[in-house]
TrEMBL record, chain A:
PANTHER family: PROTEIN-METHIONINE-SULFOXIDE REDUCTASE HEME-BINDING SUBUNIT MSRQ
Cofactor: heme b; FMN
UniProt lineage: Bacteria, Pseudomonadati, Pseudomonadota, Gammaproteobacteria, Alteromonadales
Similarity comment: family membership: Belongs to the MsrQ family.
Protein name: Protein-methionine-sulfoxide reductase heme-binding subunit MsrQ
Membrane-crossing residue ranges in chain numbering: 12-32, 44-69, 81-99, 119-139, 151-168, 174-190
Subcellular location: Cell membrane; Membrane
TrEMBL record, chain B:
Task of the protein: Part of the MsrPQ system that repairs oxidized periplasmic proteins containing methionine sulfoxide residues (Met-O), using respiratory chain electrons. Thus protects these proteins from oxidative-stress damage caused by reactive species of oxygen and chlorine generated by the host defense mechanisms. MsrPQ is essential for the maintenance of envelope integrity under bleach stress, rescuing a wide series of structurally unrelated periplasmic proteins from methionine oxidation.
Protein name as annotated: Protein-methionine-sulfoxide reductase catalytic subunit MsrP
The species this protein was found in: Bowmanella denitrificans
Catalytic reaction(s) noted: L-methionyl-[protein] + a quinone + H2O = L-methionyl-(S)-S-oxide-[protein] + a quinol; L-methionyl-[protein] + a quinone + H2O = L-methionyl-(R)-S-oxide-[protein] + a quinol
Residue ranges constituting the Oxidoreductase molybdopterin-binding domain according to the UniProt record: 46-206
EC class of the enzyme, as a word: oxidoreductase
Details of cofactor binding: Binds 1 Mo-molybdopterin (Mo-MPT) cofactor per subunit.
Cofactor(s) required, per the database record: Mo-molybdopterin
Binding residues annotated for Mo-molybdopterin, in chain numbering: N27, Y30, E31, C85, T120, N172, R177, S188, I189, K190
Self-association state and partner proteins as the record states: Heterodimer of a catalytic subunit (MsrP) and a heme-binding subunit (MsrQ).
EC numbers: 1.8.5.-
Keywords in alphabetical order: Metal-binding, Molybdenum, Oxidoreductase, Signal
Source organism phylogeny: Bacteria, Pseudomonadati, Pseudomonadota, Gammaproteobacteria, Alteromonadales
Family: Belongs to the MsrP family.
Amino acid sequence: MVRGLSRRNIFWLKALIHLLSLGWASLTYYRAGTDQLGGDPVEGILHFTGIGAFNLLLLCLIISPLVRWSRISQFMQVRRLLGLYAFFYALLHLASYILFELQLEWQLLLSEIVKRPYITVGFSAWIILLALTLTSNKAAQRRLGRNWQKLHNWVYLAAGLIALHYIWSVKSDITQPLVYIGMLLLLLSFRKDKLLKLWR
Amino acid sequence: QTHALDYAEAQQQSQILTPEAKVIGHNNFYEFGTDKSDPKANAQAFQVDPWQLRVDGLVETPFTLSFDELFKFAPLQERIYRLRCVEAWSMVIPWVGFSLNALLNKARPLSSGKYVAFETLYDPKQMPGQSNPFRGGGIDYPYVEGLRIDEAAHPLSFLAVGLYGKSLPAQNGAPIRLVVPWKYGFKSIKSIVRISVVDKQPPTTWNLLAAQEYGFYANVNPKVDHPRWSQARERRITTGGLFSSNRIDTQLFNGYDEVASLYSGMDLRQHY
């Protein structure tokens, strides 16, 4: 039996990713808007979108090891979609922070980015994800040539910055951030050789 | 688990109260878990009767109050106070209780008593955060707090045994908790078993955990930022969802200017 996924399988897998990512976000914003998301819906939304972005990025990083183990190369076809949704959630996270937490105090946004290390770090990760998103299409890939891979290797830095942003933002309970850092380190350990090469 | 209380109602005031469901559903009480919804979920079986609140230390007449005595110690009154959390959100809560000063007057502190130390119940069997370090937020239990004796004697310092007309739900610090409205919420220690008059500044939980972030005084002050976030403004938790959230300026001493004289001559940046 040939191992692999048909085009139909890929279609449904992508449909599932769209449905879960958009559906979950819509439902959560609906609940926050109608005051059903805990005592402080602003905190609820910031938490949901932040964790959501991190989850999607980790899923994105699991694809290439998954392809290697399963020898099903077609999994690669959903990686870009997962990456784009990771940025989409990061966009919701930043937009919700500006709209609902800062309530459009742009001055404060600038000073917070400069003054608060965990926000500086989170914003830096956001900028990297933005750059990766803008260059995610085929045309950009062709235009950038070999530099495209170099640019997209920055995803590892972004993931590290997100982990740092997360653990730095909590008051004292670091259990969950540590679990996430553990998962990230595990995923990075699968590409140890590549990362060491990048380092040099 | 709560019961109705007899008390003198507070006068009507202009501030919109935080809805009861949010006051009892959005709590920081790490003894029952670190998520805001954990205390309500995990504290429902918490046994508060029998209870013992011991008042001792440098006092002329130490005494102990049982569960029933907590509600009969002094005529109960309602106080509507703003509560400003160090995490930059706030609520407006109708507490029921009596002034801390009434309790101190009965104990009669000695002149050598300069501070008042408070301690929360230590009962890992009932409080999952105390038995499991992964659920307790890294705090060294029991939770302890303290006030300078003149702060404790200030008429605003309050011991609450109820809110919204009923005895306190477990997640809000049943059966008795402190409320110090001009200080960040973490000073208002919950489920108190001991109040001691002491001669030296007592250790306080969040200060022990991160001294550069949480001082002994912890007075609400928009000009002294938490090292990791601004304290200039706060999000008032009221009714409505995401789109009606209300961001307001934070006031020095949380707007309770009458306490300013307690700190005259002190550098509030240094004594944060």
